[in-house]
Design a protein that fits this description.
six-stranded antiparallel sheet, 37 strands, disordered N terminus, single chain, alpha+beta
């Protein structure tokens, strides 16, 4: 009987232990359960041995250039990568932009067009290139919200880039879908990926080592085997055993700072800024070829490895540009232009520049000459015949093709109840209200980022960037009974770097007062101008009218570009137009604005077709007096200003 009692007690103890283990597993932090699988995995292909890299056990120097797959049409990936190899580089680096892959929570797209990252990586491999991937989750990159999806802002308690559970769960879910694509593409598994970055420039943002280590473990636990590293600009900080790399353009002393925290590992400049990006209303930034060659030459002379950020910048198509805050640029808010030419060795349109040729000569000193293939041919350009925009439709007539939200108060675009709970991420939002009675003073608060105020469809006030609010004297006569108040607000791009304001909600985030009383009962229309929307309104023939010589916007104009030859690249010039966006066959080329510096938009040939092409322009203010749009074979990115 004693033996039976002992057995029962043992079973009870075992049962309690099992329950405890089940509880611990169920309540573990997301992503922690699989950490041990890395221990039995094969060794990384790229390793460090003192101050040098070794690839498959042999000495190796990283000579890399950045190309973002999401800024270049897939039809041109091979061309751009071939030119990267032609400059003597052996590796391509790319970020992963979370927000284009998960536009709605749980709705993933890694296959469509510029989202097909696996195809981009395999294309690099077909040319004999290695690949470095920087999956974030935050990427900066002058990309909207640093690549983080806007739907994260629907959580009023959200704390980005921290261990906040809502953020970590979203990151884990994203990595659960991204890593099965990247893991088989690692070199140890026959692919070209030799290194993966943990987060991005976190030393310039925070000091939460728990968060950085969590992202590292999230990668390891999902099967990443290749070398892990971090990169930092202003503040080089040690993050455990992770390889540290540094980012800079002129501060060569950053290498000494790197060696101070990591004296016995390879000197690696993960971002040498080969040029710079531009903001609307500023000059076009450039880094002279001589300075680029001198500084890159120094890095190579001390045995350093390097990644040129950017080798080829590409384009911020659509409304995906980011912005910067005042801490970095002495401005409260500064959105980035459409072109991401970056004064790179390879231009926005894929042309080899003087900088490309001089750097090719430099790299020949450090790479075997036989590794450089012949220079690829130049991508042909055509200056097509000018197009007159012959038809137009007023913005108020296209709201019927979108979803209306009725609300007592204004709602930011991210919190609109659309897209399966994701809200609106990009574009414009129109706020409509019917106001009764005579009115003298209108006050508008919380405009993010730029607004056009209309009364009965006619513009009466533009609320410019950084104003955020406006007071308008209407002084309607006492006999005035009612009017339609419309406020069109443009999301000009969310901040992608810095500490504030990280809650970058867009739209009308404040209130509207008329003679001291808040306006209620709003009709809110999301105007995202995506390809489906543009194709829909294009087909509504009865809606379009013959365009007058000029009419105050917001207006959408339509014209036809007829091409009799095989389509080639071109640049569209918006001389005489004020501000808006251009669409070719439904594809959003991006924003234009007459304050510059950018005066032309890049039109890749694959967007065009032989025959009739539909050109549409959203003009927010006033069109060119002759309604003409011209095409050029060369870009106009503005007056160049040399960086120090």
């Amino acid at each position: 009987m004693n033996c039976i009692r002992v057995g029962r007690r043992g079973l009870i103890v075992l049962f309690i232990v099992v329950l405890w283990l089940i509880y611990r597993y169920a309540h573990r932090p997301p992503g922690k359960a699989r950490n041990q699988q890395h221990a039995s995995s094969p060794a990384a292909s790229l390793t460090t041995f003192g101050r040098e890299f070794r690839l498959d056990g042999k000495p190796f120097r990283i000579l890399s250039g950045a190309i973002h797959y999401f800024r270049v049409l897939p039809e041109y990936w091979h061309n751009r990568l071939e030119k990267l190899k032609g400059m003597g580089l052996n590796t391509v680096e790319t970020y992963v932009a979370w927000n284009i892959h998960e536009p709605e929570p749980g709705n993933f797209d890694f296959k469509t067009g510029m989202r097909d990252i696996a195809k981009f990586v395999r294309t690099a491999q077909s040319l004999g290139l290695h690949v470095i991937v920087r999956p974030g989750p935050f990427i900066c990159a002058e990309w909207d919200m640093g690549g983080l999806p806007a739907w994260l802002l629907r959580d009023p308690h959200m704390k980005l880039r921290t261990m906040y559970r809502g953020f970590i769960q979203a990151v884990d879910h994203f990595f659960d879908h991204l890593m099965p694509i990247l893991v088989p593409l690692q070199r140890v598994k026959g692919g070209p990926i030799i290194a993966v970055q943990v987060e991005n420039e976190y030393g310039s943002y925070g000091e939460d080592s728990e968060y950085v280590m969590y992202i590292k473990e999230a990668l390891l636990s999902r099967g990443i085997i290749e070398l892990l590293f971090t990169s930092d600009g202003a503040g080089v900080k040690p993050w455990g055993e992770l390889l540290q790399t540094v980012n800079f353009q002129k501060n060569i002393s950053s290498i000494n700072k790197l060696l101070a925290v990591q004296p016995d590992r390879p000197v690696t400049v993960m971002e040498f800024w080969s040029g710079w990006f531009d903001h609307w209303g500023e000059e076009h930034s450039v880094l002279t070829t001589d300075k680029a060659v001198d500084r890159i030459g120094y890095i190579l002379s001390v045995g350093g490895s390097i990644n040129l950020y950017m080798f080829h910048g590409g384009t911020n198509f659509g409304f995906m540009n980011g912005a910067n805050d005042g801490k970095l640029h002495n401005l409260k808010y500064a959105p980035t232009v459409t072109s991401y030419d970056y004064d790179s060795p390879l231009s926005e349109a894929g042309d080899a520049t003087e900088k490309y040729m001089k750097l090719r000569e430099l790299i020949l000193k450090y790479a075997p000459s036989q590794s450089l293939p012949p220079l690829p041919s130049v991508v042909e350009k055509i200056a097509y015949k000018s197009v007159r925009m012959e038809h137009y439709v007023e913005l108020i007539h296209i709201t019927q093709f979108t979803t209306v939200t009725v609300s007592d108060k204004p709602i930011s675009m991210e919190r609109l109840p659309i897209h399966n709970g994701a809200g609106q991420a990009y574009g414009f939002t129109l706020y409509d209200a019917r106001v009764s009675g005579a009115v003298s003073k209108l006050k508008i608060f919380g405009v993010k980022d730029r607004g056009i105020v209309m009364v009965d469809g006619k513009p009466v006030k533009t609320i410019e960037l950084r104003e955020n609010a406006a007071e308008i004297n209407l002084n309607f006569p006492s006999t005035f009974t009612s009017f339609q108040l419309s406020i069109l607000i443009e999301n000009c791009g969310r901040v992608n770097f810095g500490h504030l304001p990280w809650f970058e909600s867009k739209g009308l985030v404040g209130s509207v007062d008329i003679d001291g009383k808040q306006v209620s009962k709003w009709n809110i229309f999301p105007l995202e101008f995506d390809t489906h929307f543009m194709e829909t309104i294009q087909m509504k023939a009865d809606m379009w009218k013959s365009a007058p010589s000029q009419s105050p916007g917001p207006i959408i104009y339509k014209g036809t570009l007829t091409i009799d030859v095989t389509p080639k690249d071109t640049f569209v010039s918006l001389q005489g137009w004020v501000k808006g966006a251009v669409f070719v066959n439904g594809f959003n080329l991006g924003r234009y604005w007459n304050i510059g510096p950018q005066k032309t938009l890049y039109v890749p040939g694959p967007l065009l077709k032989q025959g009739r092409n539909t050109l549409m322009i959203l003009e927010l203010h006033t069109a060119s007096s002759d309604l003409m749009v011209n095409f050029k074979t060369t870009p106009d990115l503005g007056n160049p200003t040399e960086r120090a």
